[in-house]
Amino acid sequence: MVVQNIAENLAGIKEAIRQACVKSGRDTDTIKLIAVSKNFSGAEIEAAYRAGQRFFGENRVQELNAKIDLLPPEIEWHFIGTLQRNKVKNLIGKTALIHSVDSQALAEEINKQAQKRALLVDVLLQVNIARETTKHGFEAEKLIEQIEEISKLSGIKIKGLMTIAPLVENPEEARPVFRELRMLAQTIERMNLPTVEMRELSMGMSHDFQVAVEEGATLVRIGSGIFGRRNY
Ligand SMILES: *Cc1c(COP(=O)(O)O)cnc(C)c1O
């Protein structure tokens, strides 16, 4: 990816977020753009950094740690990928937010490791709204059943919800998924659990973030729209 293009792409995404905000009567300051840098190099991240980007998302613990060592300490890192329980101890303390807590067992492991180190770890709970078998996350009904128990874990702080919408041709088709996540957050908010905040909705990727912003996203996770196509 040419460095120049990364700056241009970032500007284009920000403009598209602004337009989605105008359309839905939202304030752009309420949306944080997470540049998903998985599979991209330190040089590419630095190009985005020089263009003013400060929030980056990674989906592998080892890759994240390597990049933290290499890149400016001003970067705020977000973990967005499937997290194996045996990797938790190498992750906590490194991120501003773990978006992808997808089970009670994972929440319990993060809590255990956090308590050992006297940390309070900010997390989002990942919900499999569309019930895709290929995707991780709580089912909405199960989350409603389990969240009170999870909220008692004193080493984690629940800040909101995250979802990944199905990959569809027309981003409008993802709208009901985003809307359902927002409504689930409202349902949970009404449960009035003292330690649970439902401020953040992490939803929207390169192909569907404008719809997600219109539906209330506070964190959008954008990779290819900034860095170009990934070569897996
Ligand atoms: C890779 C990834 C993204 C970014 O996807 P793009 O389509 O490249 O914008 C967002 N969220 C998660 C969880 C991801 O794994």
Q: How does the SSE layout of this entry go?
A:
Blueprint (H helix, E strand, L loop, with lengths): L2 H22 L7 E5 L5 H9 L4 E4 L2 H10 L5 E4 L17 E5 L2 H13 L4 E6 L13 H12 L4 E7 L12 H15 L6 E7 L6 H6 L4 E4 L1 H4 L5
Parallel strand pairs: 1-2, 1-8, 2-3, 3-4, 4-5, 5-6, 6-7
The chain binds pyridoxal-5'-phosphate.
The site of pyridoxal-5'-phosphate has 13 residues, from strand 8 and helix 8.
Keywords:
232 residues, alpha/beta, TIM Barrel, 8-stranded parallel sheet, 8 helices, 39% helix, 18% strand, binds pyridoxal-5'-phosphate
Structural account:
- The chain has 232 residues and is an alpha/beta fold.
- The chain has a single domain (3-227), classed as Alpha-Beta Barrel (TIM Barrel), CATH 3.20.20.
- It has 8 helices and 8 strands, in the order αβαβαββαβαβαβαβα.
- The chain has an 8-stranded parallel β-sheet.
- Strand 5 (121-126), helix 5 (140-151) and strand 6 form a beta-alpha-beta unit.
- Helix 1 crosses helix 2.
- The two termini are 15 Å apart.
- The mean pLDDT is 96.
- Residues 36, 38, 59, 80-81, 164, 205-206, 221-225 line the site of pyridoxal-5'-phosphate (PLP).
- Pyridoxal-5'-phosphate binds at residues 36, 38, 59, 80-81, 164, 205-206, 221-225.
